[in-house]
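Regression test attached.
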Amino acid sequence: PERSARVSKVRPPLHQYIRKLLFSDLDKSSIEHVLRQLRKLPWNECEPYLLKCFLKVHKGKYGQIHLIASLAAGLSRYHDEFAVAIVDEVLEEIRLGLELNDYGMQQRRIAHMRFLGDLYNYEHVDSSVIFETLHLILVFGHGTAEQDVLDPPEDCFRIRMVITLLETCGHYFDRGSSKRKLDRFLIHFQRYILSKGPLPLDIEFDLQDLFADLRPNMTRYSSIEEVNAALVELEERDRMVSADKASSEKHSDNEKPSSRTS
Amino acid sequence: MKVHSVRTKVVIRQLPPSLAHSDLIQQIDARFSGRYNWFSFRPGKNSHKHQRYSRAYIDFKCPEDVFEFAEFFDGHIFVNEKGTQHKAIVEYAPFQRVPKPSTKKDGR
């Protein structure tokens, strides 16, 4: 069949330069340089395109996503509007991914989980954003008519999402209130896992690694009944704690978030 | 670390892909002019391959105004030039931080 030759996309030079900086120049040793070059750009003109490129973390190397997160955090000092927009966009992408549950988007959805975790590691978002996202992943669409499309029983992708996020930043939730939040989340997560029935082996192994890494002493429950009982117990304990709190009026929360950047 | 501080930042999702910034701001300002500190519009995309809804983020000065805003815009039907209807959703933004008002100019 006659067809005209494919026309390759012609990008304006500035866009080409941005792509070169982010997708080919960027590595551990050049990050300072890339950050400086980015700061020199005409921001009024480039900001929307930069935002677009920063969200393309799935196009680059998986192991370099943290460099993009580091750049985002580094730019917040001078371009806070941009730095906030990055987080808004990532969270929107994650939400949209849950709404569409499109197989073709899986790779980028995983990359976005990693990106969010790295944004936490560079202290650009706080733990509440991470925990809200984790819980959203477990419950989104459940109890609605679309549940079988959004999260079919045999679909384990959400487990992958959780594993990816916690692999990236879960080890920082090892003290204080974020430790308690992770403990609690992991029980809910176990309940979710059990609701899926037998898991593919690769996922099961990744889960074993995750638990061994984050909570080596945590019980892995083997039935929904057991995990439900654990959740009831957890709620019981919470009620007592909040009653205690109420009685001892002055409760000081002096847990300081530990510095995360290594 | 702030724990459960008041939430004032709101996102409007599923706006028509072709909605113009100026049209939206006009509709918002008709009722909420002067009641928010910050507004950010994220235009959608209306190509055949990928359609993306537009979105907007607003940070209200007063947390109570969020309710009035949601009452008005949550479920509000936007009609585009072709007559297609889009039902907007209003929610608290999952990330509550807003840009610092006076960011230093980059000396570079």
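Expected vs. actual: identical. The mean pLDDT of chain B is 89.
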